[in-house]
Design a protein that fits this description.
heterodimer, A: seven-stranded mixed β-sheet, 0% helix, globular, B: 110 residues, mainly beta, six-stranded mixed β-sheet, 9 strands
Chain lengths: 118, 110
């Protein structure tokens, strides 16, 4: 059974940092692109970033470029999102997702809440 | 990259069919056959319903179908059921190798 379990969310002050983790199991993690998607409370989904199988191709939404870094450790079956210079508008539930089919996410974690507030 | 445009809400009665549109540009929907659709129930993670415009993942009912014409993609749900009531989001690959979601459509089953 495919499982994606996010962790690392919490309350952080504006300008602060947080590192999200996503533990993957039930599939060959190293074979798939992985994605982070976020959703502010009561709002729609926003694609944040993705990374290819060996970490050599990485893409970000414009609003997080230079502040967020996506990475992965295939030996640990883990995906990460390092978030720096956090802003109030980064407050959201962050989902880790597996790109198990072309250009789409067919498995999602349960999400971890990040709240940026003083 | 601006969000794709979806109607805020649609509704239909059980057994009817509804269609949700998703309008983009030549920089996303119009350039690739990489449109996907997600269903999200309140408090739950999204679920993939359609990928590559019209492909259904294993386990998704054949009542769900997708299509595309030009810069607009569509999701059709036939034989509407109460459990179809949810938010639906489209998503497209873009010419700068990112993805962009639509604003979401709330489906109400009357």
């Amino acid at each position: 059974e495919v499982q994606l379990v996010e962790s690392g969310g919490g309350l952080v002050q504006p300008g602060g940092s947080l590192r999200l983790s996503c533990a993957a199991s039930g599939f060959t993690f190293s074979r798939d692109w992985m994605t982070w998607v976020r959703q502010a409370t009561g709002k729609g989904l926003e694609w944040v970033a993705n990374i290819n199988q060996d970490g050599t191709k990485i893409y970000y939404v414009e609003s997080v470029k230079g502040r967020f870094t996506i990475s992965r450790d295939n030996a640990r079956n883990s995906l990460y999102l390092q978030m720096n210079s956090l802003r109030a508008e980064d407050t959201a539930v962050y989902y880790c997702a597996r790109d198990g089919v072309p250009a789409a996410q067919n498995y999602w974690g349960q999400g971890t809440l990040v709240t940026v507030s003083s | 990259q601006s969000a794709l445009t979806q109607p805020a809400s649609v509704s239909g009665s059980p057994g009817q069919s509804i269609t949700i549109s998703c309008t983009g540009t030549s920089s996303d929907i119009g350039s690739y056959n990489y449109v996907s659709w997600y269903q999200q129930h309140p408090g739950k993670a999204p679920k993939l319903m359609i990928y590559e415009v019209s492909n259904r993942p294993s386990g998704v009912s054949n009542r769900f179908s997708g299509s595309k014409s030009g810069n607009t993609a569509s999701l059709t749900i036939s034989g509407l059921q109460a459990e179809d009531e949810a938010d639906y989001y489209c998503c497209s690959y873009t010419t700068i190798d990112t993805r962009v979601f639509g604003g979401g459509t709330k489906l109400t089953v009357l």
